[in-house]
C-alpha cells in the first residue's frame, strides 16, 4: 500500500483484525508480458473488495493466483496465516506441492465468468459432488446443504435438471450456490455477469448482494458493474498496468478519484457521483 | 479358442467325409451351405471371442496409453508415445507374423490364440489411445478449473469431471474402432487361428464353390458389424444425459 495507508482505505471495520489473505510482492508474467508487478494486497475477514480496471490490467490474474489456477512468478500469498504457494521446510520457503495446495485452497471459493457447471451432472449433483468427495460429507447432509443453497439463489425447482436447460443467469446462480456449499472463507467472483444477457445480469447481482449482506465471508469482486461495486463493496481497488493505482471506500473512489487514470476510466462508464450508471 | 493346432481333424472329417464325391464340381451349392454352415458357426464363435477379448484389451490399453500420453512425467509420455506410434505405424499382418514366427526364434512361444489377441490389442489399442487422448484434450479448461476451485484432487478431477465428459466424445470413435478390429480379426486366420475366415479358406481348398463360401463369410461378418453398431448406438444414447 502506498499513500493510501495513512488514510482510511476501506469502509470496513478492520480494527484489531488480521488480514485473512496477504499478497506480498506478487508478480506474474506470461512470457514477456508482465501482468502483475509486485502487488501488495490485504483482504480482511468479512471484507468485500471490488476490483475494477480496464481489461488486461491484471484483475482476473489476482483472483486466479489465489485460486491456484496460475502460479506466481515471484512473491508470496498467505491465506489465514499459511503460505499458499510455498511450504516452510527448515525455515526456508520451497514451492508447494499438490498436497499442500489442496490443504490451503479449501478456504477459497470461486465463481467464474463462464459458470463452468459440470454439464454431465444434474444441478443437485453439481452441488453435492465436491462436498461428498472432497469434504467427505454423507450424501444426505450434502443434499441438505445443497437444497438450502439452491433456495438461497432461487433455483430450488431446477435441482433435477441439467445445466444445458438453464439460462445463463440461472447457470451462474447455480455456480454461486455450488461454490457456497463448500463454505469457503474467501469467495472470488471473476466478472460473474460479463458473459450474461443484459436482462439476466440483475438476478445474478441481486444474489451476490444478498450473500454479501448476510455473510461474514470475505469477497473479492472483479466487476465492470460500477453501481454494483458501489453498493456492495467496502473497498474499491483500481487496477491498471499490473498495479493497484488507487484504492479506497467506494464513496471516495467514485466521487473523488485522485488519479487521472481512474478519472479517465470512470468516464468510460458514465458513472456519476453516486456510482450509478447513467 | 483352440490354440495353435488349427482345426481338430475329427471336426473336419465330420464335416467333409459325408460329401458325396471328391470331385469339386459334384458338390451342389445347396449342399455347400448345409455342410459348411456348422463349420462357419464354429469359426463364428472364435471370431466373436477374438472381438470380445481383443476389444476389451484394446479398450483397456486405450485408456492406459491415452492417459500415459498426458502424464505429468515426461519419461512416461515418451515411452507411451513410442509404443503407440510404433504399433500404429506398422502393419497388423506383419505384427502377427512377427509374434507368431519371429518371437519363438527369440525363445518366447505364446499360444497361437494369445498371439492373435495380443497383436490385435497392440494395434487397435494404439489407435484407441489417440482417441482417449484427444477426447480428454477436447474438454474445456474451465471444467478443470471449476474442479480445482472445488478443491478436488487431480484424480477426482479426472475421474468425476473430465473422463465422464470425454467418454461421451470417445464413444462414436470407439464404435468405429471396434468395427475395424472385428474386420481385422480376419487376418488371424493367417496364423492358423480357426476363425470364420480360416474355415472358409479350408472349405474352399477342399470343395471349391468360392461364390457361395465367400458370400456366407461376408454375411457373417456383416451380422457382427451390425450388432456392434447397434451396441454403440445404445451406449451413445445411454451416455447422452444432460445434452439438449
From TrEMBL, chain A:
It is a peripheral membrane protein. It is found in: Cell membrane. Keywords: Amino-acid transport, ATP-binding, Cell membrane, Membrane, Nucleotide-binding, Transport. Its main location: membrane. The keyword Acetylation does not apply. It comes from the Bacteria. This is Amino acid ABC transporter ATP-binding protein (PAAT family).
From TrEMBL, chain B:
It comes from the Bacteria. Its main location: membrane. It is a multi-pass membrane protein. The chain crosses the membrane at residues 44-67, 79-99, 105-124, 166-193, 213-235. This is Amino acid ABC transporter membrane protein 1 (PAAT family). The keyword Transmembrane applies. It comes from Melghirimyces profundicolus. One of its GO terms (molecular function) is transmembrane transporter activity. Belongs to the binding-protein-dependent transport system permease family. InterPro entries: AA_ABC_transptr_permease_3TM, ArtM/GltK/GlnP/TcyL/YhdX-like, Ectoine_EhuC, MetI-like, MetI-like_sf.
